[in-house]
Amino acid sequence: MDATADVEVRLGQGDVALTARDRTLLQAVAAHGSLNAAADALGRSYAHAQRRIVELEAAFGPLVDRSRGGSGGGGSELTDTAEQLLARFQRLQAEFDGVATAAETVLRGTVVDRDGELATVETPPGTVRAIVDTDADAGDAVEVGIRADTVTLNAPPEAPEPAGTSARNQFAGTVEHIEEGASIALVALAVDPDTTLCALVTDTSLEKLDITTGAELVASFKATATVGVIPAIEQPGSDESS
User: Coiled-coil stretches, from where to where (predicted)?
Assistant: First the structure.
């Protein structure tokens, strides 16, 4: 069983998945009229690009219609299958972007210490390392924002040791509820009695990890993807009519 859920947008077919990198390659083929020109424009090896197209076609069907050189010079264009695949990918990406923009967990905490831009913040569910406003010193209150698309979920036995990964922030919790979309799910993980941490996963990861309400999971997220700011102070009388 795949024990990690992440939110990189992918369209899977068997053991092969179309990724954002593959989408860029196909779009470049359409724009430049040949795989060779597309690889060159992207700064990629033609051999690697060709091999990747072959792998994708074995899973999804014909994607690039190639014509041999002649008086017209030959070239390549995308098949209808490729166009449909790109459209599906774009819809999935749009859904993901929409949910990711809206879903953010904000933790209130206090700066314990700092090292340049990075600071240690004590929050109700535990200690968090984050990029924190340089005006915030030890003892100052801050609000730490954690975007749902930066959170990775693991089954507890498979959770990486914090010292062995760049995602050193970790909270264990229980799945409180799941909001499923067409291809993306928003998972709410209760990491303490008063705090729910949101994470985005694909429907494939949801199934492979067997994520259900009540499941125990470990959430991990990087310090460099976590931002702390000094909370805005409400001015006295701001609600009064002038």
Answer: 39-95
Token pair, residue 58, equals 């074995």
- Spatial neighbors of 128 by CB under 8 A, at least 6 apart, are 107, 109, 120, 121, 144, 169, 223, 226, 228
- Quick check: is 236 in a domain? no
CB 171 within 8 Å of CB 154: no
Each residue of 194-233: pLDDT tens digit?
999 999 887 778 888 889 999 999 999 999 889 999 987 6
Residues 130 and 89 in one domain: no
Please give the model's pTM, rounded to 2 decimal places.
Answer: 0.58
> In this structure, which long-range contacts are made by residues 32-39, counting pairs with CB atoms below 8 Å and at least 24 apart in sequence?
33/75, 33/76, 33/77, 34/74, 34/75, 34/76, 35/64, 35/66, 35/76
CB 39 within 8 A of CB 53: no
Considering the domain architecture, whether residues 124 and 145 belong to the same structural domain is answered as yes
Q: Do residue 125 and residue 153 come from a single domain?
A: yes
Distance of alpha carbon 96 from alpha carbon 200, whole angstroms: 8
Tokens of 170: 């970790």
155-187 pLDDT, tens digit each: 888 887 776 666 789 999 999 999 887 677 889
Structural domain range at position 56: 4-100
